[in-house]
Amino acid sequence: MGVPAQTLYDLRSQGRGPRGFRVGRELRFRRAEIDAWLTGMEEADAARHLGGEEQ
Known about the structure:
Layout: H1 5-13, E1 21-23, E2 26-28, H2 31-54
Antiparallel strand pairs: 1-2
């Protein structure tokens, strides 16, 4: 994704990132969760842009 792993960890802890789970001391993310999170971000961005054009 081109972002540091810490960024994903921080976003997750703020409730703004993909769902993850712990394996021992390490945090893991399923690819499907990352894809769903990215899709949600894309949809929210598209809605903001469409909403701005209609005003």
